[in-house]
C-alpha cells in the first residue's frame, strides 16, 4: 500500500530534517531528478545543491545539449515529460520531422520546446558565458529552487570502449541503444577538469552528501573522476550516503545491469556498494534486496532497506525521507 | 476576368519560350519567389537560375538565417505558408513559445519546422561548407528544379540609416516593423564581396536576365552592389528586363513605397525604372500604371503593361509569360 504524503506531513518532515544546514546531491539523469523532486518535498529545496554529470553532453546539429542538467531542471520545474522522464511535457517534434526530410541525423530526438533550451545554451556558450552561468539562468527562469551546478565548466566526455570500438556516450546510449558489450568506460578530460564554481564550497559546507540512485559508472563516475571533487569528498566531515540504482538484480532504468555484467561485477546493490567502498558511510537498498544488507555492512556502510522504486510523487518523498533518516544515524 | 492557365497551354508556352537557352532572375523574397513559381510554369524550371539576395541574412539565437533564400526555396518546393509568403505551411511555434518563457528575443518568429533549415545551415557553415553548397543541398533535398544561388558566399549586410540610428535590416524590417524614417541604405561588405560560384557564369550564358518584382533598394540593391555581378550585367549581351514592385502608387508587399517617399523618389513604376536606368532594356508595369509608360520608354526601356498582382497560380504564370514575351522583342 502506498501512503500519500500530505502537505502537512511534508512540512513536518521538512522541519524535522532542518537540523541539516544544507544537502548536496551528486546527480545523473532520471533517477536523480526524481529523487531530488522527492527531497524537495521533505527538505527545504533552496538548501539543496545538485552537482550534475555533464559527461553525457553532446554537440548535435550545431547545438550543445546537456541531457542530465536538462532532466534535473525540467523535473524540478514540473515541466518534464513524466512518462519518458526527459524532455518537456506535451512537446511536439516538428523540427525533427523537417530534419528527417533533410536526411539529417535524427537519432537523438529533440522536441520543439526542448530545442529552445539547447539554442539558448548554445548562444550563451558562444557569447563566452559558462555552463554554470547558463544553468543558473535557466533554472531561475523556470523557477527551480534547488541549486543546480554542472560538475565542471570544462568538457569531460564519457567514452565507452566496446567490441565495436570506442563510442561517445550518446552514440552508445541512444544511437546504438546500449546494445554493445562494454569493455571499459573512461572520462576524457576529467583528470584536468576543475569543479565548477560552488561545487567544492557546497560539499565543504554540507552535512549530508547523497549519491543519487544514478548509474555509478556512467553518471556518478564522471563526477567522481574530477580530482577537485574527489578531494573535497575525501576531506569532508559530511555524512556521505548512496541510494541503489539496482533493484532485484536489474537497473531501474538504462543499461547499468548489463554493463555491470559485462565488466564482471555483481549485479546487485552489493556490486554498486563495492564501487563506492571507502566513500560511503550509508547505503539505501530496496526491500527486495535485504539479503545482501549484511555484506554491504561489511564494507563499512550502514544500510537501510525501503521501497526505492519512485513510481509516484509520494514514493519519491518517502525514499528521500528514509535516506535522510539514515543520514541522521551515520 | 482571370483566365486559368491549363496544363496544355503551360506546356505549349514552355515550348514556345524554349528559344531562350537559359534565364537568370535576380531575386529578393516573396515577390520574387512567386514570380519564379510562375516562370517555372511557362518555362523549363531546370533552365532557370535565381541569384538571391543575402543582405537580409541574420544571426539570431545562434543560428544563421537566410530569409530570402528560404522564401524562394520553400515557395518553389511547394511547402511555403501561402498566406504569409514565408515560413513553412502548417508550422507550429512551440520552440518560440519556450524561448519566450526564457525571455529570449523572439521578435523574429521562427516556426519549428523552419528551425530545421536554420540548424542545418548553421551546422554546415560551422563545418566549413559555403552558403552556396548548402543552398544547393537544401533545394535538392526539397526537390526544387530552379537552380538557387546566393549572390555571394561572403557576408553582405544591408544597413538602414534612420532617424533612430543605423539599423540592421531585420531590426528595421521585422523588429521595428519598418516604421522608421529611412535616410539612406548601405550594403556593408558588398564592395569587397565576390559573386558566389556560378553567378557570373549563369549571367554570361543566359539570354534573358529578369529583375524580379522585388524591392529595388533592399532586395535587388545588395545584389547589384557586388562589383562582379554589376560587371557581368554590364558586359552581357542578354536581354535585361525588370518587373515593377510598385502598383498604383503602393508597394505590393513591404516598405518600398515609404522608403521611396522618404528618399524623395517618385512612388511609381517610373521611380523604380529610374533606379534601373542604363541597366534595363525592358520593363513590365501594371495596367493601372499605363500613364507612366511613355516616360519609362524615354529612359530607353521597352514597356509592357499587364496584370502584375500575383494573386493566383495562373496570375503568376501569366506575368511570367508576358515578361518572356517582352524579352522576345528587346
Q: What keywords describe this structure?
A:
homodimer; 330 residues; alpha/beta; Rossmann fold; seven-stranded parallel sheet; three-stranded antiparallel sheet; 14 helices; 18% strand; disordered N terminus
Molecular structure report:
Two copies of one chain form a homodimer. With 330 residues, chain A is an alpha/beta fold. The first copy, chain A, has helices at 7-16, 30-42, 67-77, 94-101, 112-126, 131-141, 169-175, 199-205, 220-224, 227-235, 256-262, 269-275, 293-297, 313-329; strands at residues 23-27, 48-52, 58-60, 63-65, 147-150, 157-162, 165-168, 182-188, 208-211, 239-243, 246-247, 250-251, 282-286, 302-306. Chain A has a single domain (7-329), classed as Rossmann fold (3-Layer(aba) Sandwich). In chain A, 40% of the residues lie in helices and 18% in strands. In chain A, helix 2 packs across helix 14 (313-329) and helix 8 packs parallel to helix 10. Mean pLDDT of chain A is 93; it is low at 1-5. The interface between A and B is medium-sized, with 31 and 31 residues.
Amino acid at each position: 500500500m502506498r501512503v500519500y504524503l500530505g502537505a502537512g506531513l511534508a512540512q513536518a518532515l521538512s522541519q524535522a530534517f532542518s537540523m541539516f544546514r544544507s544537502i548536496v546531491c551528486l546527480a545523473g539523469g532520471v533517477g536523480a531528478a526524481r529523487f531530488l523532486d522527492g527531497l524537495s518535498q521533505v527538505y527545504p529545496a533552496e538548501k539543496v545543491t545538485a552537482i550534475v554529470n555533464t559527461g553525457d553532453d553532446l554537440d548535435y546539429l550545431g547545438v550543445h545539449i546537456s541531457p542530465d542538467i536538462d532532466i534535473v531542471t525540467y523535473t524540478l520545474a514540473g515541466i518534464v515529460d513524466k512518462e519518458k522522464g526527459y524532455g518537456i511535457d506535451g512537446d511536439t517534434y516538428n523540427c525533427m520531422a523537417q530534419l528527417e526530410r533533410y536526411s539529417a541525423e535524427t537519432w537523438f530526438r529533440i522536441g520543439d520546446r526542448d530545442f529552445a533550451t539547447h539554442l539558448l545554451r548554445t548562444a550563451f556558450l558562444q557569447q563566452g558565458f559558462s555552463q554554470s552561468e547558463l544553468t543558473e539562468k535557466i533554472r531561475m527562469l523556470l523557477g527551480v529552487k534547488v541549486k543546480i551546478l554542472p560538475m565542471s565548466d570544462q568538457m569531460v566526455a564519457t567514452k565507452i570502449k566496446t567490441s565495436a570500438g570506442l563510442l561517445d556516450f550518446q552514440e552508445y546510449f541512444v544511437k546504438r541503444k546500449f546494445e554493445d558489450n562494454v569493455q571499459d568506460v573512461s572520462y576524457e578530460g576529467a583528470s584536468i577538469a576543475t569543479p565548477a564554481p560552488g561545487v567544492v564550497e557546497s560539499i565543504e559546507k554540507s552535512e549530508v552528501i547523497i549519491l543519487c540512485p544514478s548509474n555509478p559508472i556512467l553518471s556518478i563516475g564522471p563526477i567522481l573522476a574530477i580530482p577537485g571533487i574527489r578531494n573535497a569528498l575525501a576531506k569532508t566531515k559530511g555524512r556521505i550516503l548512496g541510494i541503489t540504482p539496482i533493484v532485484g538484480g536489474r537497473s531501474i532504468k538504462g543499461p547499468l545491469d548489463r554493463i555491470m555484467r559485462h565488466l564482471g561485477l555483481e549485479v546487485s546493490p552489493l556490486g554498486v556498494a563495492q564501487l563506492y567502498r571507502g566513500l560511503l558511510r550509508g547505503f539505501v537498498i530496496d526491500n527486495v534486496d535485504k539479503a545482501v544488507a549484511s555484506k554491504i555492512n561489511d564494507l563499512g556502510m550502514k544500510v537501510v532497506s525501503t521501497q526505492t522504486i519512485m513510481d509516484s510523487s509520494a514514493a519519491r518523498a518517502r525514499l528521500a525521507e528514509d535516506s535522510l533518516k539514515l543520514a541522521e544515524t551515520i
